[in-house]
Amino acid sequence: MKKQIFLLPLLSIASALIGAGPARAIEVAFEPDHSLPLVTLNVAARVGAAHDPAGKHGITNFTGEMLLRGTRKLSKAKFDEALDRLGASLSVETRAESMIVRGSVLSSQLKPFLDLLKQALVEPAFREEEHAKLKSEVVSAILQTRDSDKALGGEKFAEFLFNGHGYGNPIEGSLADVQKLTPAAVREHYGRMIVDDSLLVVGTGDAPVADIQAWATELAAARPRQEKFPPFEPVAAPAENTERRLEIVDKPGRTQTQVFIGQRGLLLTDPNFFPTYLANQAFGGGSFSAKLMVEIRVKRGWSYGASSFMRHGLQPRSWQMYFFPAAKDAAGALALGLQLAEDAKKNGLTREEFDLAKESLINSAGFMYDTPKKRVENLLLEKTLRLPEGFMKTYAAELDKVSYSRANEAFQSFLKPDAFAITVLATAKDLKAPLAEAAKVPLEKVQVVPFNR
Amino acid sequence: MTAAPPPPTSTPLTGTHVVQRFTLANGLRLLVVEDHSSPTFAYQTWFRVGSRDEVAGKTGLAHLFEHMMFKGTTNHPEGELDRILESNGAEGENAFTSWDYTAYVQELPKAKLDLIAGLESDRMVNLIVDEKSFRTELEVVQNERRFRNENNPDGMLFQNLYETAYQEHSYHWPVIGYQTDLDAMHAPDAVDFYKSYYAPNHATVVVAGDVNAADVLSVVENHYGGLKAQPAPLRTIARERLPASPRRKHVKVRVETERLLVGYPIPPLVHDEYPALSLAETVLSGGKSSRLYRALVSTQIASSVGASALDGKDPQLFLVEVTLQKGKSAEAAEKIVLSEIAKLAAQPIGAAELERARNQLEYSFYERLDSNSERASFLGKFEALTDNFAIGIEQFNRAKEITPAQIQKAVAKYLKPSVRTTVTGASR
After folding, report:
1. Which of A74, A250, A298 to mutate: most B Cβ within 10 Å?
2. Which of A81, A450, B303, B383 is an S-S bond match for A140, by CB 3.0 to 4.6 Å?
3. What percent of chain A is modeled with pLDDT above 70?
4. What is the pLDDT of residue A257?
């Protein structure tokens, strides 16, 4: 039987807590899938790390984590015990513009699981003892990011590229900010996060739609009305860079480097998005036939991976290249990556590159939504980025309309190699001069930041 | 005289999914799971060879050879395999090597079954390995090694744990190999390896998705039926003896917070007591109410803890991994780990803990079967490790019936402090 996705309209529900009043809305989408006795449920708030105020970076993630550390009825220990006993899991994923509580459970245990999830969302306890414990865990997690060159390099690159804009905020925050977070600040942030119209329930699994809908209705009604805190300002568009910049994240003893090169990206709804996306597929879209992969990995063996990709938001976010050559090849690989981008800007793609990328993307587009879980992820993206409904299913048709000249025109006007932000995690004393030369950035303008700051 | 291949079998997996198993005359195994919910299928080829089959001095060859499988064949020049797959809408084209197996995986639109069977059967026997492409790929692998181990403190500690825990068996060396061994390799090494291990009788093809099992059999017969079986290579894999006393090693690595790894030798996946150890894993670290989480994370000593009964063709390790919080020591954490394991060995778990462990195990089992590619991976892995995918289902069913006394007995028998290997990592 063909599966159907049920998109429920906004529900108007009178609040059980505060009596009659303006409509309490919640958006619910649930796709029944009875192939396995499992249920996956995500509850998203349309607030993310990009909304973290200056001096409180990490507060959205921290608040999300606090939801899972005890409710008014249950201590953290009792909450954990109840959840684990069901064989269920709950976790928090914070993105730039959303925070998602992700849950999964055996369908036989759905009812008690939904009760726990509701408690976590609308009756969190925010106990001071748990606040202190979480702070200690998050501080350790931030420190541990420094142990992973890839994670640290990626985080530093986002900060460098966005230069003070919220899209550069580290998800877990900074050590200084997290250490200063107070329980009162977290409670206030919660009040601003879990507000009317901000919540979205998306899931799939072995459960009747009506049960999920009924639960979501209860959730909407039970949600505390938070009127005393001001809502979040929408994230503004980040500025474009005006000149090429190079930052070296200096970490001693590196035999391998992490190279990130990028610029401001495009909105998914930009008329140039699909032509640019197609052209990027040929340039570095992750396949073994993409130019970046062929030149850096296949021909020279300089990096295990080499790719270029876009990250999306409610505002134009980023386009970036990423590869990780040995220290001995770092300058050569950086120069080559930049040269390839400059060539793409000047000359565009060849017809053969365009044809392969187009055929590949159109023929594989079905894999973007071939399982219920992927469809759930698509919906989360569509709803949190306020995209047109069904946007993720339009790729094949939209790509089919893109002509060779249109792809080149869009990609060539999009790329701004002269204004690239470049972050290289490397040992600066060995590589500062060669990297500056490769990047064509004056040595005195190269920014060197210690890895542990 | 060659023995006749076993007859086809049909085995229920979960829900409406059924595994159909065929064996070709040349020994190639074929597993098919039909699922018509989307017009796609996963196609995976699992070779029963991994770093376990290497010899000292040639470490990393199984993995390096995996990379070579994406080069040219006598029918398709280098780069063509990728281009054909990409233009035909392949998704998730990838490969991976472990201690015990090497797998090649991808998903495709339903009409592409004949295409992928043709390409995979071609590279099973017609690969061209020349020195130039071998040297380039060697450089790629050296970069992968730098990424996974040399510049990755956790990878480096894991390598040290296995080097310390295994003194005789080939699990001693890292799957990715040692730099010096890799640098000394040449194309003929890869050719020898290819001839020894890449043949239909050393492989299982798994197809899961919108296919008809009879059609799959026909297509696979057509493309692979003419390939010749190769004799099984002689392998002299040393048996690891239990340590006479605890082993430990401290590794100075650049980390902001200390790390602790503790490994205990456990029996292989097929062993009767393996399911009890799977449940012990859940009791110790499954969820935030688990024993090690409460003893280490809730007390602000560690930021994370995990336990896992690693599955292998040969005896593997029951691994406990702890990432400490700032200022806490790995040595102090080790004492707590030993104490919690001792409690589990001394007293049976209660009803609530058993229920939790069983529910978590059940959830994990179903989660591993949640898509065409996951179903194919489950089957391919168990077939490679145990020669019979059905053992994966049987072990799950047995785990559901395990009693507290059986868990206690297995923990007492295998997780003894005297046989453990401890590796600590810190910048001191």
Report:
1. A298
2. B303
3. 93
4. 98
Supply the pLDDT for residue A3. Answer: 34
Set of chain A residues whose Cβ sits within 8 Å of the Cβ of B303: 137, 140-141, 144
Say if residue A6's pLDDT is above 60. no
**A363–B88: do the CB atoms touch at under 8 Å?**
yes
N- to C-terminal Cα distance for chain A? 56
- B336 in A contact zone (CB under 8 Å): no
- Backbone CA torsion sign across B323, B326, B331, B334: negative
pTM for this predicted structure: 0.94
- Using the Cβ of B210 and the Cβ atoms of chain A, whether some distance falls under 8 Å is answered with no
Residue A87 scores a pLDDT above 60:
yes
Backbone angles phi, psi at A371, to 5 degrees: -130, 155
Instruction: Band the pLDDT of A24: cuts 50, 70, 90.
Output: low
**In this predicted structure, what is the pLDDT of residue A19?**
24
Biggest distance spanned by C-alpha atoms of chain B: 67
Residue of higher predicted confidence among B2 and A439? A439
Q: What is the pLDDT of residues A244-287, one digit of tens each?
A: 999 999 999 999 999 999 999 999 999 999 999 999 999 999 78
Q: What share of chain A is helix, strand, coil (3-state, %, to 5)?
A: 45, 20, 35
Q: A356 contacts in B (CB within 8 Å)? A: 83, 86-87
Classify strands A13-15 and A447-450 as parallel, antiparallel or unpaired: unpaired
Of the listed ranges A23-32, A207-216, B379-388, the one predicted with least confidence: A23-32
pLDDT at B129 > cutoff 90:
yes
User: Is the predicted ipTM greater than 0.90, yes or no?
Assistant: yes
Report, as an integer, the average pLDDT of A30-45: 95
In the chain, the amino acid numbered B203 is: A
Closest CA to B295 of B260, B268, B266, B269: B260
Q: How far apart are CA B154 and CA B255, in angstroms?
A: 9
Distance of alpha carbon A211 from alpha carbon B130, whole angstroms:
61
pLDDT value of position A45: 93
What is the Cα–Cα distance from A307 to A284, expressed in whole angstroms? Answer: 5
CA A127 to chain centre: 29
Instruction: Report whether B77 contacts B122 (CB < 8 A).
Output: no
Give how far Cα A84 sits from Cα of A9, A105, A116, A175, B362, Å: 33, 10, 11, 31, 12
Of the listed B34, B54, B66, B340, which one is catalytic? B66
Contact B386, B312 (CB under 8 A): no
Q: What pLDDT score was predicted for residue A226? A: 64
**How far is B250 from B235, CA to CA, in rounded Å?**
33
| Single-letter residue type at B231 | P
| Amino acid A18: pLDDT | 22
Residue A332 has phi, psi (to 5 degrees) of: -65, -45
- Quick check: B41 and B207 in contact, CB under 8 A? yes
CA distance B297 to B62: 38
CA-wise closest residue to B199 among B173, B233, B175, B170: B233
Determine the distance in angstroms separating the CA of B360 from the nearest CA of chain A, rounded to an integer.
4
CA distance A182 to chain B (A): 19
Question: Residue A2: its pLDDT value, please?
Answer: 34
How many CB pairs below 8 A link A and B?
191
Q: CB of A102 within 8 A of CB of A42?
A: yes
User: B262: closest CA among B328, B337, B329?
Assistant: B337
Cβ partners under 8 Å of residue B399, min gap 6: B275, B276, B278, B279, B358, B361
Does B173 have pLDDT greater than 70?
yes
Q: Which residues in chain A have Cβ-Cβ distances shorter than 8 Å to B115?
A: none
Give yes or no for a contact between B110 and B38, defined as CB atoms under 8 angstroms apart. no
Rounded (5°) CA angle A180-A181-A183: 135
